[in-house]
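Re: the 234-residue chain
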Amino acid sequence: RPIQIPDRMIQLPTLFPFGKPAFDSGLIITSLFITVLLIVNMLASIRVVEAAVKKFGGTVGKRRERPAGFAASISHLLSGLSGGIAPVPISGAAGFIETTKLPSKKPFLLGSVFVIIISMIPLFMNAFASLPSPVGFAVNFVVFSTMAGLAFTEFDSYEKAEQKRIRSIIGLALLTGVGVMFVPESALSGMHPILISLLSNGLVLGTLLAIAIDRTQLIKKKKSDNLVSSEDGR
């Protein structure tokens, strides 16, 4: 689509650009689910990035879960106040390291500064917004294809007994998440907003289902092991 010419060169963020916050039960429940999803995603991203950094000779310091969670909470708060999209830690960062073979933080810091600068120049933002979606997908294709390889590498690191359990979890979560994406919106009409928010998001539903199945199986396995241990001790 044609690029829209803005009426100003620089546009600084404003507070609540879309109006004052409104209470919505469905949105609040979705936010809670998304929070769980983001925490799981953050922990997974930290783990695969550490593996990628070590692979190419980089150094990894102490555990970064708490600082990363604190930084993410601040960025999401500021993004919500200014009507922006908050940065989300994804495993694609490890794919970027695998593709470029650069374990340094400098490319990520420079990229973040560059994004902040161009986000305040409406002409640049309008130019990027006019690009077709397939262009963005093509740029991320190499990075995300490498990320898929990292997922299989992580899967192969588990013992064979665990791999069988993980396969079932992946299959159920993947098919459930993809399946609900094909459910028409009309099928969800009349339901409670909380159910609509959950059933209309395949990523959230699939991730929550994977977590629930994994926790349930681990609890059953622990109870079974304790029962066997108690019987052996008699």
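The chain has nine helices and no strands.
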